[in-house]
Write a structure and sequence with these properties.
The complex is a heterotrimer of chains A (163), B (712) and C (71). By secondary structure, chain A is mainly alpha-helical. Helix content of chain A is 55%, strand content 4%. Chain A has seven helices and two strands. A two-stranded antiparallel ribbon of chain A has the order 1-2. Helix content of chain C is 66%, strand content 0%. In chain C, helix 4 packs antiparallel against helix 5. The longest helix of chain C has 14 residues. The chains are: A mainly alpha (163), B alpha+beta (712), C mainly alpha (71).
């Protein structure tokens, strides 16, 4: 398998988020609308919200994995996330952690298709873990410090708080 | 002897929370300054005086005077209303008059009844006689004592508030300045004497005519002449009444014209400030849009292609990945070495020989030293440890995947470390825009104030000025019309009077009789007396008017001293309808127009000062002058001049002012305030100096004002 | 103004000199307390005192009528 095949394999995956965060995500995202601005500061699209949540999760160094019993929603295919540079940066951060979730890059070079498939599934599970930890963090803020979302700098402020 | 207010105290009155002792201002002769910013109790202080003197207060929400008893709950301190269920609210004025001391207290007892309040108003007056306080009980006496503070007829001139300055001296109606001059001259009794003489003259005319008819009953000609005379007298009477009506109409038209003139005079200013407001609003909209765009842009900055804020602080990841890739490359290379072992030529040393060479640190092949960990030593070790021949190969090649990632994110290694600074600058820029908007809003608010000061209306449209111009033309036409009617009426009167004289002469020539002569003499004397008395009254009025004009010009000169633009000269002219018109003339005696509101107000203030100081020759005004007027539009020069001349005009003045206030300064005084305080401390300006302060921030209903006495 | 002050003002009226031919010296000697030898001045004084003492116009009229008719 070559690099572009691996990219395609990852790219066709749809990371999931927990159903319990759907309202929050809808509240802070503006699906298909990048012009308007409501009462609260919001992102332009769902996948931006998702990427933001992953970064929050990574900064928290915390994961909130989806349990088998939990209701989830599929997300936009990974290959369609943009900007691609940020998507790749996230991928890079996950690859940096690959040994932590049991995959040495060098071993992947010699692994069979099944093993590669297992790696990609785990990679996406890891992404989901960070994203849902990020959503959990945002949900707490939303519930307890809602006024903070009236500040246009809210999402920058959260990043700074975690720096 | 002047009336001097010794103190004013408040109890739970608006901002003045607490007892009378907590809120007492002690005053002296001269100028008493209370310097306070907006919302620090200036108008509330003034309302205290209004309550005592006129039982009214100015309601700043309704923007008009209201009866105090309809406003008690608003007058009580918000703080005490929240804290207590039973309390007293009140105002006390202590004053000296002809060596007698009085203490006047108006108060309201509040008690809570469910959700509403019961109120009970009281007026207590104490007179101090030989160090004993005697309560005054009689209601009529109480009213008389309150009038001693400031008499009703002078209250309009002694109490100066806010925007009321324009209406202070009514120049166009007969009840205005003319009436004030009559009061000041004390000629009310002379006016009554004139009225009596007029009636007596009419009565004698009737009596005389009756006697003529009676004595000459047989003479038809005399009867005819008497009848004609009576007819003419009736016509004269009815025409006089008509002329009076015309004069009233003329007075109304002039008043309207004057008002509109003042408004139109300011039309230019209004146009200017209307324009300034529009420009500022456009600028505000522009900056708001700019700020909104900037704020809306924050989230796109989070996901920017080149410097995404979302990656702030994550630059280490790039290095980490690079290291990992190097490790991977190294690992793959090692793997290849393993897959392709080093083949040694024939006769090369075997493993035991290589082991020995490593141990001895000596290469037996080339005969040279090979110290431990040196390159030759390492090479020997590598050869010794070379793997055996095995078949191994890599299944995948993800190199392009990793290098693609590195290419995509490569530029971030430079941009991510700068993100924190970029955000800081971005925030600063947004704050700057917000500051500009606030500043522009303030400028717009000031322009609005100027616009309102120039007679603009918040609700009125641009068409108001057009309507005013049309009304002005109409008023001018009315003035011409009534002037003409009065002129014609007076012409007829003169003709009829001449005819009456002819009739008198003719009757006298027909009939002579000693008895009738007495009646004729009676009639003539009474007519002359009426004429003499009326002329005397006019003469006194004219003299007062002249001295008022001289005095007002002196004050006007003093008040406008040092101003860059010349303010002209005040000219007092008696009109045909008996009113007095005051205009500002230039050096060539032409009407001076286009003077700003400041000058117009100084004109009013000069007239007031002249009225007050004219009252009793060289003596000072008898009653305190209390002002809560905005001084700001006059400028520092006027404020300085006012403080210089006021002590010469008023025995005592109490000036509530914000133009000496600076909230940023430690003592709350601006430069002008410090200058004036110094003059007071040095005795150049007599009086006291207070500054109102708010010690704790609160909403307007819970404000608590305290005073600091800088010069007692 | 007091009646005395008003009288002083009235005595300065030019009509007293032009119509009634009173000299300045004559006028200077006039005052409220002393009876005047000039009828017109006495009548003026009568009206003034009448006003001051709140007499009715009819009463004042009667007094003046007597002053004139009894001459």
């Amino acid at each position: 398998m070559d690099g572009s095949q691996l990219r395609d394999l990852i790219g066709q995956k749809r990371p999931r988020y927990k159903e319990q965060y759907r309202t929050l995500i809808e509240s802070i995202s503006k699906k298909g609308d990048s012009s308007g601005k409501g009462d609260f500061s919001s992102f332009g699209a769902f996948y931006q919200t998702y990427m933001y949540a992953i970064v929050i999760g990574i900064k928290l160094d915390k994961q909130n994995f989806i349990q088998a019993s939990e209701k989830t929603n599929d997300f936009f295919v990974f290959s369609q996330w943009s900007p691609t540079s940020i998507r790749d940066y996230i991928l890079m951060m996950l690859l940096n952690k690959s040994e932590d979730f049991g995959f040495k890059l060098v071993e992947l070079e010699n692994a069979g298709t099944e093993a590669i498939e297992a790696f990609v599934i785990e990679l996406i599970r890891q992404i989901e873990g960070y994203a849902n930890a990020g959503f959990e963090y945002l949900q707490t803020k939303w519930d307890n410090e809602n006024m903070k979302f009236r500040n246009p700098f809210v999402f920058v402020n959260f990043l700074e708080e975690l720096s | 002897m002047a009336t001097i207010i010794k103190s004013i105290s408040f109890q739970n009155f608006y901002n003045y929370y607490g007892s009378f002792n907590d809120n007492t201002y002690l005053f002296k002769e001269g100028i008493n300054i209370i310097n306070a910013d907006n919302n620090m109790g200036k108008s509330k202080f003034y309302n205290g005086i209004l309550w005592i003197l006129k039982s009214t207060v100015y309601d700043s929400d309704l923007k008009r005077m209201v009866s105090a008893n309809s406003s008690f709950q608003k007058m009580a301190s918000g703080k005490v209303i929240n804290e207590e269920t039973n309390f007293n609210m009140g105002v006390n004025i202590t004053f000296l008059d002809c060596d007698s001391k009085y203490s006047v207290t108006k108060s309201v007892q509040f008690s809570k009844n469910g959700n509403s309040w019961n109120t009970n108003e009281k007026l207590d007056i104490l007179q101090t006689i030989e160090n004993r306080d005697i309560p005054v009980l009689d209601t009529f006496d109480k009213e008389k004592i309150i009038k001693k503070i400031i008499p009703t007829e002078l209250i309009n001139y002694a109490l100066l508030q806010g925007e009321s300055m324009e209406d202070l001296v009514d120049l166009s109606s007969h009840n205005g300045l003319s009436s004030t001059i009559e009061t000041l001259a004390g000629i009310k009794n002379l006016i009554e004497i004139c009225e009596i003489s007029k009636e007596l003259s009419q009565k004698t005319k009737k009596l005389s005519n009756e006697k003529e008819k009676e004595i000459n009953s047989s003479n038809n000609r005399v009867e005819e002449l008497v009848q004609e005379s009576e007819l003419l007298e009736n016509r004269i009477d009815s025409t006089k009444t008509q002329i009076e009506t015309y004069k009233t109409e003329l007075s109304e038209a002039k008043k309207k014209k004057d008002n509109l003139e003042a408004i139109l005079l300011n039309a230019q200013n209004r146009e200017k400030f209307r324009g300034v407001q529009k420009t500022l609003q456009n600028e505000i909209n522009h900056y708001k849009e700019k700020k909104n765009n900037k704020l809306k842009n924050i989230n796109s900055m989070l996901f920017s292609e080149y410097s995404p804020w979302i990656l702030m602080g994550l630059q280490d990841q790039i290095m980490l990945f690079d290291n990992r890739r190097q490790e991977l490359t190294a690992a793959i290379a090692t793997q290849k070495v393993i897959d392709n072992p080093i083949k040694l030529p024939e006769g090369s040393p075997d493993i035991p020989s290589l082991k020995r060479m490593i141990r001895m640190e000596f290469c037996e092949v080339c005969g040279r030293q090979a110290p431990r960990n040196s390159d030759p030593w390492n090479h020997i070790k590598l050869v010794m440890e070379r793997p055996g021949d095995k078949e191994k190969s890599s299944k995948n090649d993800f190199g392009s995947f990793y290098s693609n990632i590195q290419t995509t994110i490569g530029a971030f290694s430079l941009s991510i470390p700068k993100i924190a600074q970029t955000i800081l600058e971005y925030r600063e820029k947004a704050d700057e825009l917000e500051d500009i908007i606030i500043q522009k809003e303030e400028e717009k608010e000031n322009a609005k104030l100027e616009f309102l000061n120039a007679g603009g209306s918040e609700t009125g449209s641009d068409n108001t000025d057009k309507q005013n111009i049309s009304d002005y033309t109409l008023a001018e036409k009315d003035i011409l019309k009534y002037d003409e009617l009065i002129r014609k009426g007076e012409l007829s009167l003169n003709q009829w009077r001449a005819r009456l004289k002819q009739i008198d002469v003719e009757i006298k020539s027909i009939s002579t009789n000693s008895e009738i002569e007495k009646y004729r003499q009676f009639k003539e004397i009474m007519a002359s007396v009426e004429y003499i008395l009326n002329n005397s009254r006019e003469r006194i009025f004219d003299e007062i008017l002249k001295s008022l004009e001289i005095n007002a010009n002196r004050k006007y000169g003093e008040l406008t001293q040092g101003n860059l633009s010349a303010g002209g000269k005040l000219s007092f002219t008696k009109q045909a309808d008996g009113t007095v018109q005051v205009s500002i003339k230039n050096v060539n005696d032409g009407e001076l127009t286009g003077l700003g509101t400041g000058f117009q107000r100084m004109k009013q203030l000069s007239i007031i000062m002249a009225i007050i100081s004219s009252k009793i020759g060289n003596k000072q005004f008898d009653y305190p002058f209390i002002s809560d007027a905005p001084f700001s539009e006059f400028g520092d020069n006027f404020i300085n001049n006012f403080f210089k001349i006021a002590p010469n005009v008023f025995s005592q003045s109490i000036i509530l002012i914000k133009e000496l206030y600076d909230p940023m300064s430690e003592n709350y005084l601006n430069d002008l305030g410090i200058k004036i305080l110094k003059k007071m401390e040095n005795g150049v300006i007599p009086g006291t100096f207070y500054v109102n302060v708010i010690e704790e921030k609160a909403d307007t209903t819970n404000l608590v004002t305290k005073n600091k006495c800088y010069k007692g | 103004m007091t009646t005395e002050e008003i009288l002083n003002e009235v005595l300065q009226s030019p009509e007293l000199q032009t119509i009634y031919q009173l000299s300045k010296e004559d006028l200077q000697q006039e005052n409220f307390s002393m009876k005047s030898k000039f009828l017109v001045i006495e009548i003026i004084k009568t009206i003034m005192t009448g006003q001051e003492n709140h007499r009715s116009k009819e009463q004042i009229f009667q007094i003046i009528q007597k002053q004139i008719m009894h001459l």
